[in-house]
Amino acid sequence: ILKKVDLILQKGKVHVIMGPNGSGKSTLAQVIMGNPSYIVDGGKIIFDSVDLSGKDSFKRSQYGLFLSFQYPPEIPGVSVSGYLRTIYNKRFNQKLSPIKFREILKEKMKLLKMDESFLDRYLNEGFSGGEKKKMEILQLLVLMPKLAILDEVDSGLDIDSIKLVSDAVNYAKKDSDMTILLITHYTRILKYVKPDIVFIQKDGKIIQQGDADLALELEEKGYAPFGD
């Protein structure tokens, strides 16, 4: 449950939300993306001066919003290459052939050290946890959204995979004004993806905001010193 969350994201900046389990971080991400499973009984979501409050997830994605799933679903029968080509063509109003799009994908997959054989597998079917997370970041590289919401993209990853994912996120942001909202429990990924603004969320509310030092203070002291 979210309680009058007032969150302002600055264009082109890296924002981080940290908070204990059950504080509503993932709920906030889903609400921003327009998941119909969540009931919004007040407030507005304004993005690039457009009120997205009444728009569905597909429309929000067309405006440039992207959400990486914390637990990506398996979709049997849908190939990785076919799925990515469909969302790419929708996002950029293109009609790229499978062969031409595959060449684009191979370059992006190198950043994540993903084997080309992934393209012929069914989406997330039989993927390890780490492979699913890389698949989410590959979608980010394909779509190049205006706002990327990354929900615990570092959870369950070893340090090498965290660095790979971080490098890909930094690459995506390098030549664009992409805004990033990173949701995480840990500061490990923040060694590689440098935050500009850090929020602490607790009991459904944003209770504190600061710079990168706030994340370090949180790691040292825990959540207890940060009251409502």
From the 3D coordinates, which CATH architecture of one domain would you assign? 3-Layer(aba) Sandwich
Mean pLDDT: 93
The major beta sheet can be summarized as: 6 strands, mixed
Tell me the CATH superfamily of one domain: P-loop containing nucleotide triphosphate hydrolases
Shape: globular
Task: Give the low-pLDDT segments.
Answer: none
CATH class of one domain reads Alpha Beta
Spell the H/E element sequence. Answer: EHEEHEEHHEHEHEEEH
* Main sheet strand line-up: 4-7-8-1-9-10
Helices and strands in order, then pairings?
Layout: E1 14-18, H1 25-33, E2 46-47, E3 50-51, H2 57-62, E4 65-68, E5 75-79, H3 80-92, H4 98-111, E6 122-123, H5 129-143, E7 147-151, H6 159-174, E8 179-183, E9 197-202, E10 205-210, H7 212-221
Parallel strand pairs: 1-8, 1-9, 4-7, 7-8
Antiparallel strand pairs: 2-3, 5-6, 9-10
Helix pairs in contact: 5-6
